[in-house]
Amino acid sequence: MITIKSKEEIDKMGKAGQILAACHKEIARMIRPGITSWEIDQFVEGFLAKHGAIPEQKGYKGYQYATCASINDVICHGFPSKNPLNDGDIVTIDMVVRLGDWLADSAWTYGVGNISSEAQKLLKVTKESLYKGIEKAVIGNRLGDVSNAIQTYAEAEGFSVVRDFVGHGIGMDMHEEPQVPHYGPAGRGVRLKEGMVFTIEPMLNVGQYFSKVDLDGWTARTFDGSLSAQYEHTIAITSEGPRILTEQ
Ligand code: MF3
Ligand code: CO
Question: What ranges make up the beta strands (E) of the chain?
């Protein structure tokens, strides 16, 4: 069942989202060759505590960190690590923030130092594909319109869309209905209604879309070793159009 959120509830999710957006802004300033994703994770814990918020991922199904830190060929769910980031790496930092009863979820891929032109294009197109999807998140459209806009744009730019991980409804729980694929036909799926809140979080690969998970049970990589990027926002369907809850 898809839970519909009231204006007040969406505002509360927006408060969590503002903290999350501010946190990403700080991370953007910290990212440089030599820093570790472990340090970023520690920073996030402190930042959230200072704002009275909680890192929801920590303890979720046994996950041990505030953030996921997914470097280069890692698609998602990478562990923060004490290995320094290198010039030319790309790293996706993903987190779910709880403020009181309500959650917000957002991921961003950062370039470390000077990144290749291919990596630059991957980041640009992945971010743009997210916004192509958001544009379609309006009352009366179907979920497949969001999915299809992302896939169409990503593939036209020469990248593939990961199939094995999708966006999701979110509210008081991290994962609610519906599932939000970033691929598939337009005109299908649930009709979007005012008060629905879900994430859109396309993961795009330079190579093929297939993934594999490491023996740690979490770290998901591209099967072919190619680069992967991700941008994610939590959005609400409102009578004024899509409201991005995780953007300042
Ligand atoms: N933010 C991710 C998502 O989009 C996180 C999930 S995995 C976790 O659902 F265990 F680390 F939380
Ligand atoms: Co998510």
Answer: 54-55, 68-71, 74-76, 90-99, 102-111, 160-161, 167-169, 176-180, 197-200, 203-205, 211-213, 220-222, 228-230, 233-238, 241-244
Closest by CA to 128, choosing from 102, 103, 149, is 149
- Ligand 1, pocket-test mutation among 54, 60, 213, most atoms within 8 A of CB: 60
96 Cβ closer than 6 Å to some ligand 1 atom: yes
Mean pLDDT, contiguous 10-residue spans, the chain (248 residues): 98 98 98 98 98 98 98 99 98 99 99 98 99 98 99 99 98 98 98 98 99 98 99 98 98
Token representation of residue 200: 């859109």
| CATH number, position 213 | 3.90.230.10
For residue 103 and ligand 1, the question of a CB distance below 6 A is answered with no
Chain segment 118-127, per-residue pLDDT in tens: 999 999 999 9
The domain tally of the chain equals 1
- How far is Cα 180 from Cα 146, in angstroms, rounded to an integer? 8
Residue 128 lies in a domain: yes
Say how many residues make up the chain.
Answer: 248
Is residue 60 within 6 Å of ligand 1 at its C-beta? Answer: yes
